[in-house]
Each structure stands twice: as structure tokens, then as C-alpha cells.
Please model this.
Amino acid sequence: MVRKAWRSVLRVGEREFISLVLLLVMIFMLVLPIVYLLISSIDLQQMLEILTSVKIPPDGELYTVYNYPGYVLIYITGADYGPVVNSLLLSTLVSLVVILLSMITVIASLSMSRARWFFGYLLPLLASIPMPFLSAYAVIHLFHRDLGIVNIVLGSLGMGFRIAVDGLAGIALYQIIHFLPLAHLFLLSYAESIDRGLIEASWNLGAGARATITRILIPIMRPAIIAVWSLIFILSIEDLVGPLTFSRHNAARNLLSYQAYIGFISEYGYQVSPRIASFVFIMLIITIAMLIPLYRYLSISRLGVVSFKRIYIEVTGIKGSLLRVFASILLIISLAPNIMVLLYSVTKGWFLSTSPSLAWLDNYIDVLISPYYQRAVINTVVYTLVASMLIMILGYFSAYASMRFGGGIATAIEALSIAPLVIPGVAIGIAYYQLFHSVARGMPIDPVYAPWIYLVMSYTIRRLPYMVRPLEASLQSIPRSYEEASFNLGSGVVRTMWGIGFPMIFRSVSVGLVITSIHVMTEVSTSLILIGSPAVSGTHPSPITPVIANLLVYDPLLIHRASSMLILTLSIVIILSLIISSIASRILKLPRD
Amino acid sequence: MRRRILVAVVSIIVIAGILLALLAPQILTQQGREVRLVVVTRLAPEEGNALRERFLKSDIAAKYGIKDIEFRKEDVGKWRSFVESGAVDVFLIGGYAVYNSLCRDGYLEPITSREVISRASSIGAEIYRDDKGNVCFISVSRTIFSFTVNNDYLSRYSLPKPSSWEDLASPAFSASLLKGDPAISFPMPSKSTTAARTLQLILQKYGWDRGWQILTIIGANSKIVESSEKARDDVATGISGAAPTVLIYGLRAVNASGGKAEFVIATQGLLPDISPVAIAKNTKNKEAAEAFILWLLSDEGQKALAELFYYLPYQLPKGTPLEEIYRKATGNIYPYDPEDSSKWELSAVYYFEAAIADSDTNTLLKKIWSKAVSLYLNGSISSRDLEALVAKLGSPLEIDYKGAKSVFTKEFASNINNMLRSPQEADLFKSAVKKAAIERYSSILKSLGG
Model:
């Protein structure tokens, strides 16, 4: 009734009305805060200073060799070219290496038959679960110059060398390990959607594995490769966990995301200075500059995450075996930090020590009996469920509008639904604080007192693309005749999209729901900025990521408790997402596989 | 029909979630008209949690009907907003300067309970009054700042155990820097009260010029980290050999390291600090707030502060590890003047972060100091030459700020201190300092053949 009234006032059709509302919601949640931040704080002098702070020749060496009694230490750090060039170089290197490695693992997975579900899907799915702070901590635990497990093993084997990775090189290593499974899943999923007839035709015409891969597979996958490369580039440039972990080395602090975040957080209160706004603006320019030329690829490669096994590429002989072994090792290494976190959760006293003791479920019990941790877990679950539902609704509307409505507004909706991928979380967090604190200062909805409102909003908009892209892929693949029949029988747009389209793509919605839930509950940047330090009570508003950050800063031995809290919450969120999907599936009377 | 049910389920989840998050705190607190105190603090969440559990079990909490007490660790910049909205009852822990300015600007409710004032006087707790003689805040305990070392790290790099702040800036303590691993973890003072206090102590104890020289070399010999906690963890794990720490963090590092770390009582260089408590203006629970302060000053509260946080209570903590620390600390406490340092605190913090801790200037400092120490150790330069280099390197810079060139003297620092509260001015100041520092360091590095 209200909708009809509004439509009559606006004199627009149902499609235009939905598009307009979607557009306004996205502008409010994404564009407005960012524009306000930039307008209110930008300073050209600071911008120029940052842009011209390029160090040529760079500070430091790529690596240095130090002589110790009995061994040499190869200390790999990377050279420092200043924040802008460092960020560009790091993201370029990480994204290229990740694409190269993930293409190897994808091809190896496509050449696997029975093992594909395990190495191709299960391992990378587990490895792609973000473990904020803890997995980066695990990387230091593995690679520290004196105390890292790798060097301890090298020492105990009597090797005459040690390898340490620190600074920008440490961040690169962390990011490659962190992003590889995600890139692998996207690319494998895309590869599985290729028409198997093309691959079979190649075999039938006598082409070998190499020719099929280089002349058929890779050219067909090009849009996805470019899209995933740009996605990894952007994820790398906005990453905050890597720089925070390796910040003891000066070059690691010379990154745009670190400079923006560290300037904002201060003992003297949150400060949005012109310099911080300039860092944010430069990051935005870089990511938008990436988006514009590559938008075509991002737009056409609607990436899912899990697909049915559809194609097989035969790579035989010793080369094929080597490829599969190498790819399996890569995927296992990418899982190593998450396995370390799992081990932290069931041990104690493993604080940079090689001799942990088993704690079984003690750490989990500690979390369950403390009202402070309980509250963080409950908050996370509630925020995640609410945000995931909002993402599902907004995501389906956006996907449907961009795939079915056509016209300028649909294009704008699609662009805005991709945009959160390229807008760094630090920028959104700072922009939300700046805008809503200015507007609602002293009111009950001020982010200082009610941060949860803005957390749910920022989670919804930041993780929207994780839902929209797979849904678009699914909408593209279903026949439109059912929807046309619905329209012909007199149904409106809303009824048709929810009554016909939604049940038909519900499997993608279910997968998207689980994935977005995981990414919402492990969100770091905006959570840290909007929550700061959580209050200590049974009623504080903090989700788990700021609590984990605080636990780690309070007492290093609490890494075990932090790990158990993360794994417990992850388990609850995944189980609840699956239950909700299952219930919805029963309500919609969808057939089982 | 079924689709409508699905829409209804989704809507219910969204609405229930929002209502739960919005109303849960209010529902919980309104049960039985309980008094719930909100304490804004600089205590870590875990610390607040421990203190909450102790207090809620006390007779005083029961007597005044206090059913819950919430500790919120908040940046001091937000404290005034909390007062304005009436969302805070008590402030606990934080610097003297913060409480002094809150008192001066009318953000604190005078403490009027005779019982509280009389108890504070009887145990020797310091009472701070405003111009009209009202009690603005009370110090419920004290703490000390010094540094913690990791003996494993020191022996790994054959470093001498430092006993004073000057020792941290000695060439002998820089041997690990020559292997690419600076021995100290030093937090950024704008993110760490410990680092800010350390700056103030060194500048007061050694004088302005010599103080900056020592800080410059400590900076060159440091991994710059974001927080006191990261510095503490580094020294506990053996990632670094030393870190400035407050007593509690030092002792926590000792525990976490299994005894490899050691809290050092710096010779004549302990910085004492108070642990203030105050009542916020606009509180609706003044009586309960005063009851909480009374508990902090009681035998039970003093014991809790000593046991939970290793704060030095006003009553001697007999039979606890703190008794030994009391003994060692006696005679080594520097007569720190918080009033003096509050005049130039912000200028010093930003100057340090631009000239010493900034990633570009710090890299240059490390290059210079590594080169100088190598030359000194192989006999190419004398100790006098090294001292001259330190003086040249660390003496306050001449900066071009707001169109005029000025040396960063103590007087200049005091003059611009309040101005730097504006983020725009802080940016301009830091840019000017960084520019001057890079010019000076580049020239010195060139003269050393770097």
C-alpha cells in the first residue's frame, strides 16, 4: 500500500521504483560517507607530499646475509620505495604470484578425478576461512629469524643457513598464503563452467594437455583471470593485518593502508586529519583506477565459489604427477596458518615456544563461562545473521535488477554492488565514523554509543559483492521463460523475482549465505575502527575481532583463548547458516540432490 | 503461502536481531531497578573484567545495590562526549594531565562523601582539588614506569644488561642492530601512555637537549611498534631485548616468558604515576560512584589493585611480590613533575614521531647509527667523536613551521602545544619536523660515507 502510494507520487513503474530505492540505499551506505570524508578533510598539500614521497633509489636491500657462528642468515625484507610505490609494487607482486600459483593449482585440480573434491575444493575452502590476526601471527611463528619453526627445524637438521622473512617480504608471503585459496576457488569455479565440448573437441582433434591448456582453457578463462587478479590486487592494497603484523620493520609501515589506520588511532582520540584523508583518497584513486578499465571483466566474470565437477583435463606422465604433487603442497601450505590456529585453540603455553601442552577443551570452556566473551560471541552471531539476511535481500534485489531490468540505473546498481570490493575497509570505517559522528554527535545513535548500527551497515555493504556475484552467475544460467510466464499471468516484479527467480537460484543463495556469513564475522578494519576497545561487561557491543585484538594485546598467552573463541564462533555461524538454508529450502519445497 | 512464511522468517530474524542488540542492555539493567555503574577507563578489558568480578562480590556493592559495573576502555579523546551524554559515572586510570583538564573544564563532579575523603586521607592517598577547594579526583594507587629486558635475547647478541635509560642508548647495546635486529621495541607515544611517559621522564631527567639525544639513539636502536602491549610481547618472547614498560606489563612479560624476561628498576630513573579516579559530571549514580571509590580505597580494594594489576597501593602490600619491588624502587624514583610535562607533552610526542619514529626518518637514523657504531667498534672513531656525532644527530632540530624558522626548544614546544590539538596543525608540524630531520640525517649520513 505504502509502496503503491510512493510509486504514484513518483509516477514510476515497479522496476524503476525498486531500482531507485536500491540506488538510494547504496548511495547512503557507501557513496555518501566516502564523499563526506573526502570533502571535509582533503588537503592538496598533504596529497602532493604523499604522492611525491618516492624513494629512488629505495631504502634497504631486497635481502641481506648476516654471518652467525655456525650458520648464515638470509634475511629477506624487500626494499622501501615509499608508501605509494610500496603499496603498488606489493599488490602487483602479490596478485601476479597468486594468479600464477592459483592457475597451477586449478589446472592440477582439473586433472584430478577422485581427489578433486578434497584438494580442489575442501582444502582451499578451509584455507580461505579468514582467521584475522591469528593466521598472521602463525606466519611469524613459522618464519621468525630466531624463533620461527622453520629456522628451528633447519637448526636441528644442522643446516648451515637460516631464512627469515620480514618487512614487505613478510607481508607479501602472508598475503600470498592468505589469498591463494580464494583465487583458486574463484578460478576453479569459473573453469568448471566452461563448455566441456570445447575441451573434448580439443582432445578429439589430437591436441595434448599443454595445447588444450594454453590454447583453449586459459584464453576462455581470461576474463576470470583478469577479474581475480584485480580482486587480489585490491584485497592486497587494503589489507591491514599483514602490515600490522610485520610493522616492526620500517618498510612494512610505509604502506597506504597502515598509514591511514595508524594515523586515525591515537591515545588522544580518533583524529581524521587531512593527511589521513589523503591516504584514504589515494587508495581510492588506485582502486577506482583499477575498477574502470577492468570493470568489463569484473562484470562478465560472475564468479561462483563451489561448482559441480564438469570438465576434466588429462595431464599424464611424470609431469602430470609433479604438477599434482606441487599443487597439493601449495594448497596444504596455504592451509598451514589455519591449522596452526586450530592447534592454538587446543593447546596452551605455545607462545613462540616449540613445546606446547595439550589443553583439550579448556580454552573453549574459558570462553563459554566468561560473560565478556559470551557477549562477544553472541554479538558476532547476531550481527552476522542480521547482516547476512540484509545482504541476501539487498544482494538478490541488486543481482536481479542488474541482470533483468536493463538501462542506466541497472548499470549503476551493478557498478555500486561491485564497488565495495574496491573501497578499502579502512576508508569505509573512517568515513562512517566521520559522517555519522558529525551528524549524530551526542545522540543515542552516535557511533560512539551505538556502534553496532554502523557495524551492521558496514558489514552489509562491504560484503554485498560476495552475494551479488554468485547470484548474478546463477540468474544468468536460468531460463527466463518461467519469469515471463509469471508476468503474463499478472504477477508483479517483486512477486515474480521472489516467487519464481529466488527458489530457482536458492542453492547459490545458500552457498553465498555461508560465505558472506564467514566473511562478515571475520571482518577486521571497520570493526576495529568503529568499536575501538570493547567495554568489559556482559552487555558490551563488540563482535569478536576487536576482542581478539584486545586479548592479544592484553596478554600474549591468551592467543589460545582467542583462537578458541574464533573457532567456536565460526562453527556457530556456519552451523546456523546451514540450518537457515535447510529450513528455507524445506519451506520453498526444493528437491534434494 | 510458504514463500510468505520464508519472508516472515527472514524478517523476524532481522527484526529480532536488531531489537536484541538494541534492547538487551536496557532490559538487563532495568530488571529490579538495579544500579549499574559505567566506568570509563584506560584499563584493558581483561583488567576491567577482573576488577568487576572482585567489586561485585564486595559488601559495599551489595550495600549500595550495585548489581553491575561496566568498564569501558575508551580513548581519552572520547571522554568528554561521554560526560556530555551522561553515559558515564566514573573515570578510572589515565594520566594526571587528562584529569586535570577535565577538572579545570568542569567535566568532573566534586567528590563530597566525608567517608571517602576521610579514608583517602587516612591511607595517604593523594587528593586533588580545583580552585574552589572541591575534591576533583583522588589517586587510589600508584605505579612505576621503567623497562623490561629479555635475558635470552641479551645473551644471544652478547648485549650488556642495561641498568639505566642511558645504557639503552650506548654503542654496546647496539650490537644486534649491526645484525639487522634492533634490540629495543619502542611504542609510538601517541598510541602508548608508557612511551609518552618515558619521553617525559628522559626529557626531565637528562634535560631537554641531552634528553633528545638519548631518545634519538634509543629510537635508532628500536623497532617502532604501535602499542605498549606489542613492545611487552616482543620483550616477553625474545623478539626484542628491551622495552619500556609499566610495572604490570613488565611483570606480565616475566610470567609469559617463563622467567626469561626481567623488570629492571632503572637507576634513579623510575617514573612514578598516579592512578586517578573521579566522578563524571551528569552522573545519575553519584552515591554508587562514591561507594565504588570507597571500595577502591578500602583494604579489600587496595589489595585487589595490588594483586590484579600490581599497582602500588597506599598500604604496604606485605607478603606479596610487590613488597620486594617497593624495597628496590625506594630511592630510584625520579621526582617527576607532571605539571611541567603537561605544558609540552603533545609537542614532544609529535616531534618524536616525526623526527625519530617515522618510518623514513627512523630508517635513516638506523643507517647512521649502524655506521657510527661499526666505525667506533673497529676503532676508526673515538668515543669523543661518537659523542659529538650523537650531539649533532639528536639535538633539537631547527624547523620551518608556519613561515618562521625556530629551534625546537622547550619554550617553543610549550608555546605550540595547545595548537597541535588540531589535526591540521599536527599534520603541518609533523611535516615540518620530518623535512628538517631528513635534511639533517641525510647530510650526516653523507659525511659518514653512507
Chain A touches chain B through 90 residues (CB under 8 Å). The first strand of chain A starts at residue 63 and ends at 68.
